Amino acid sequence: MAAAMLVPALVDLGDENDDWQVFIGSAFLIGAFCTLVATATRRKSQARLSQRYGFLLVTTIWVFAPTVASLPLYFSSLELSYAGAFFEAMSGLTTTGGTAISGLDVLPRGLLMWRSLMQWMGGIGIIGMAILILPSLGAGGLSLFQMENSDRSDKVLPRVNQLAAGLLGAYVALTIACMATYVMLGMGAFDAINHAMTTVATGGFSTHDASMGYFESDAILIAATIFMILGALPFVIYIRAFLPRRFQRWRDPQIPVFLVICAVLSLTLAASRRTINDTPFGEALISSTFNLVSVITTTGYASEDYTLWSNAAIGIFFTAMFIGGCAGSTSGGVKANRLVILYLLVRASLHRLVRPHAVQRLRYGNQVISTDVLQTVTIFFFLFFGTLLTGTVALSMCGLDLTTAFTGSLATVANVGPAFGQIIGPAGNFGSLPDPAMWILSINMLLGRLELVTVLILLFPSVWVD
């Protein structure tokens, strides 16, 4: 993180903006502190990573990362409260995309670069956490189904470091491809770099208050839609694409389900706009697909205020806020694999009412769904809606109206970004909210990004001791 702060420092230095001193000072402070800690804790023997320690480690990292990332925002020329700076950093690193900053068009380029870098670093951090760390803890999306069996010959890659390198390579390659596409479509180099990082990370931070609507280009909206979808697919698929035999044997039902949901909802929304608003179907399809995919993948871009389209559009976007992308991607939300399992469970339960003595085995792709997996999915949905309602009540106590409180809680727990209403809708931001509301929303983003269980399990005293 300290090293990454040198990038916006160089940008501000080149623009002769005094904020470069803030980034250099923050980088030096954090780098010095980390060096002292690393020196003081250097040992010959390595500590054993228990499951309980793993939960604590993951949560601690994701609390201290925005604490560190918020320092340049707080000490810069933005004049943010610390709650606002922490909210912005948490939103960036969790790739939520909600912002407390207005006037992006005139913001120093170093701060814009730092916001994009936070989302890009958070995106690869999320992938690594979801694929390399959380499965071993029994929490998170891919822990429902290990992507590799005990048989070494069926593993994606034989070593963890090879898998990590493959994931990073795929992430960087997608980012470069997205940036090059934006440049070819007429976007300026600085905008292209920033938007490429936040598109692939499905984060949604923009360099303009009008977000993607600033460019007024259907071609850019189409390109952004494609790369948002690519960022919302499980990144293991890009490694398997170079392993033809293993790719052919691999089946992940969540991918076609996710793509079908995006297609069906986009066509439905475009048809409703053609019927209700008399918008030309081609224009309606491009803007509807872009904005809807942005919400489903929890990116948070917007080309216009879609809450003004119609009540039908609001209902479709509200539904889309729950869905999310695929497990093992940079997106948040419920995620498509859980929706598949929930559907299979409901279907089996209804079938059992007709044939109570029938023996049924639920399968997800090539794997039989165990009782533990079904229990994990049930617990997640209970915690998701429990956190959503708790956040709504807490935000209401901060003086927010019900629409702002509920959709704000949903947008942060699902890591979507923009919510509904005049304050925090697609045309607004979170900057006018009181500091207590900022802290509540920051906690929501942390809970949503770490799949709820990883954080909430630390609240039980039985976990603290052997």
From TrEMBL:
GO terms of molecular function: metal ion binding; potassium:chloride symporter activity
Topology in membrane: Multi-pass membrane protein
Residues that coordinate or bind K(+): 95-96, 203, 298-299, 415-416
Lineage: superkingdom: Bacteria
Gene Ontology terms: cellular component: plasma membrane
Transmembrane stretches, start-end: 20-41, 53-75, 117-142, 163-185, 219-243, 255-272, 308-327, 374-395, 437-460
Subcellular location: Cell inner membrane; Cell membrane
The keyword Hydrolase is annotated on this UniProt entry: no
Keyword annotations of the record: Cell inner membrane, Cell membrane, Ion transport, Membrane, Metal-binding, Potassium, Potassium transport, Transmembrane, Transmembrane helix, Transport
Signal peptide residues on this chain, from the entry's feature table: none
InterPro entries in UniProt: Cat_transpt (IPR003445), TrkH (IPR004772)
Family statement drawn from the similarity comment of this UniProt entry: Belongs to the TrkH potassium transport family.
Function: Low-affinity potassium transport system. Interacts with Trk system potassium uptake protein TrkA.
Protein name: Trk system potassium uptake protein
